[in-house]
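[audit] Reproducing an earlier prediction to check determinism. Same input, same settings, fresh worker. If the tokens differ from the archived copy the diff job will pick it up downstream; this log only records the rerun itself.
[audit] input (267 residues):
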Amino acid sequence: MPVCLRLVSGAISVHVVRPRDAPKRDVRVGRHEGCRAFSGFAREDGRMPRTATVVRVLASAGLLAACAYPAGSTSVPSSNHSIPRATSRSALPRATAEVSPSPAPTPDPGSLPQTTARPSGSDPQFAKRMNALWAAIVSGDTSAGSSFFPLGAYLQVKAMSNPAADYRARLIALYDLDIHELHLKVGSGATLLGVDVPDRSATWVTPGQEYNKGSYWRVYGTRVRYRTVAGKEGSFGIFSLISWRGQWYVVHLGPINRTAGTGAITP
């Protein structure tokens, strides 16, 4: 005999549909476990037990939903679907902080040997040194020594008893005086327009000349062009540049012949 479950006004109504001429017998509904449990509570007169009793029994057994499916059905209630377990993802590699090695300090060029490389006024390193020279001129600060010929190189070049003393007392002292003189000429806030080096006029100076024991390239006639804050353009000369390892450096900003202890500007 078929079993019919109905939901009426929020309550479950259970009915067994039986033909009138059918003999009274135990009600066995399907082969499903839940339906067997339900059938076992049928009354002897063929009628079904009270709805409340059936619902309570089936609910306590967890079988109420099972009776809603016919025997042999392969359908499974959604509440009984097995929930797939989350599969673990492959572990991502941990980000490791790479510590960049500190750049090696730039060696003092004066600690390295001389080369025969010919310098150029268009070299970017030379342009940096000229910017440093210009910063010293417009500020009146003589600490911009990067444009000047290195002391270590001077010690390797000059054949004299105390080249270090000559370097500081004569060359650097005159350089500082010339910086102050140029500051008075161009003023603060002036703009550097360019530095023109006559590279083709450079000469290779050999040992024995100019109290030398070493060699270098030397050039005269370099011009520095600028514009003042008032908009006036002008220029002045660098008396001489000499080379070290293929780079131009200032060695005499103003002229050599001058009144002792005074700054001078190369016209």
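[audit] rerun output stored. Observation attached for the diff report: The first strand starts at residue 3 and ends at 8.
[audit] end
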